[in-house]
Specification:
The protein has 452 residues and is of the alpha/beta class. The protein has 16 helices and eleven strands. The strands form three sheets. The chain has a six-stranded antiparallel sheet with strand order 6-7-8-11-10-9. Bound molecules: tryptophan. Tryptophan binds next to β1 and α7.
Length: 452
């Protein structure tokens, strides 16, 4: 099976050179690998959390889509779509919100940073904090789990969000999965070898530092004038420069072949003037960007083409999301009242739950995993012991089902009105309380019948 790789790009800004080197270029390269099934999307619902300027959002969606396509993303071989074109994502987000502990969200770095800043300013701790910001990680989990992505390339600052997505996936699986793992547990991919591009002033290139070099915006002239503003030391031409102390060199290296970078390095040491060095940097970057910039400008002039590509991407994405959300609706109980649910599997299950006994997984007050077996009427027959690992609980449930009702050897009667169920000589569940031996016998019979 191919590895499914998924990542989102928040549409709140204009792509700069740092985005290109750190995210766009490696992602486009990765998407060309034949063993990868890539999902790239514009996280425009996420953009609403950070940005209140509607025109900015609209413009950014266009610029970012055009940028990724111009940089070589092939919409025929990847699934490239807008989050807001897939209504199953916010629907899943709500289902996940309902299994997510508020305490988990309280620990999110972005929310905590906002609270800390408020505390430092002496204002109410939730001042300016929206529910969007607070629940941001749940929406991100929905993005990822909707498509059961295995790998999620992200910046280091997103690691915690991936851990949360795994936590939320596990909770949903154990609450509603009945032994089935609806969601794959996604893994973050942080690439160590991708350059963190320094900005004009040497700090990380970032919109919030106002130190960026534009990627396509403003054309070759804007690139040139930004490069002219890269801060250097005051050594004049002929004086040896220290490449390792120069962010100009780091930017150069991100675009150069190794031997080119080595040459540039030795020229700096030999006294290359900063003016010449900047000209060389400009030529190098321009050689890589120029062909893509033409494509970019062409796309920006024809937004209908981009719209068409994104619509086709949404259609492809929904080909997966629509049947999956149907199963999830069924799992949480949002089913048709008559005639079964629209999905074939849903129909079978909806009918079944009316007539038959069922296992129900839950987490107990200590956060451990247990399950109950309920009779067709909803009466508790037994309750399992607590498991730290939901998979263990699922396995025991599976083994009980596999007995198909041959449970006589597993049941030991206890006292006047209790019973214990054991597997391999180890107790795994206790019969529900009954007030008489007769009641207990009825439950044991119900246990047998439930699995039969
Ligand atoms: N939060 C991510 C960022 O700021 C963007 C994003 C939204 C994302 N949904 C995602 C990334 C899903 C990976 C997977 O970078």
């Amino acid at each position: 099976m191919n590895t499914r790789v998924l990542t989102g790009i928040t549409t709140s800004g204009t792509p700069h050179l740092g985005n290109y080197v750190g995210a766009i270029r490696p992602a486009v390269e990765a998407s060309r690998r034949s063993d990868v099934d890539a999902f790239y999307f514009l996280a425009d619902y996420h953009a609403l959390i950070k940005c209140e300027d509607a025109d900015r959002i609209a413009r950014s969606r266009l610029e970012i889509a055009a940028t990724w396509l111009a940089c070589g993303l092939d919409p025929a071989s990847v699934t490239f779509y807008r989050q807001s074109d897939v209504p199953e994502i916010p629907e899943l987000c709500w289902m996940l919100t309902c299994v997510t502990a508020k305490g988990l969200m309280n620990r999110a770095h972005a929310y905590k940073a906002a609270v800390d800043q408020n505390a430092a300013r002496g204002v109410d701790e939730d001042d300016g904090v929206t529910m969007g910001l607070f629940s941001y990680p749940v929406l991100m989990a929905a993005d990822i789990l909707m498509f059961n992505a295995h790998k999620v390339p992200v910046g280091r600052d997103q690691l915690q969000h991936l851990e949360m997505a795994r936590d939320i996936a596990q909770r949903f699986n154990s609450q509603f999965g009945m032994g089935r793992e609806f969601f794959v547990l996604p893994e973050a991919v942080i690439s160590e070898d991708v350059a963190l591009l320094p900005g004009l002033d040497g700090r990380k290139m970032s919109k919030s530092y106002n130190n960026t070099i534009p990627l396509f915006d403003g054309g070759a002239r804007a690139l040139k004038s930004a490069v002219a503003r890269v801060v250097t030391d005051s050594r004049g031409p002929g004086e040896p420069k220290d490449p390792d102390a120069s962010h100009l060199y780091l930017i150069y290296r991100a675009f150069a072949r190794p031997e080119q970078a080595a040459l540039f390095r030795s020229e700096l040491i030999a006294g290359l003037g900063w003016g010449d060095a900047k000209r060389m940097l400009c030529d190098l970057v321009e050689a890589e960007l120029e062909p893509m910039r033409d494509h970019y400008e062409d796309l920006m002039a024809h937004p209908a083409r981009i719209e068409e590509i994104l619509q086709a991407g949404a259609h492809k994405a929904r080909g997966i999301a629509t049947p999956f959300i149907r199963e999830l609706r069924d799992a949480v109980g949002l089913r048709a009242l008559v005639g079964g649910s629209p999905s074939a599997s849903g129909k079978a299950k909806a009918g079944k739950s009316e007539r038959e006994a069922r296992f129900v997984s839950f987490r107990d007050e200590n956060g451990r995993f247990r399950f109950r077996l309920l009779s067709p009427a909803g009466e508790e027959i037994l309750c399992s012991i607590a498991y730290a690992d939901p998979k263990e609980a699922g396995k025991v449930m599976g083994r009980l089902k596999a007995t198909q009702g041959a449970v006589d050897g597993l049941v030991q009667l206890r006292g006047d009105s209790g019973f214990v169920v054991s597997l391999d000589g180890q107790p795994v569940a206790h019969g529900a309380e009954s007030d008489s031996a007769d009641g207990r016998d009825r439950l044991v019979a119900a246990f047998h019948a439930a699995l039969h």
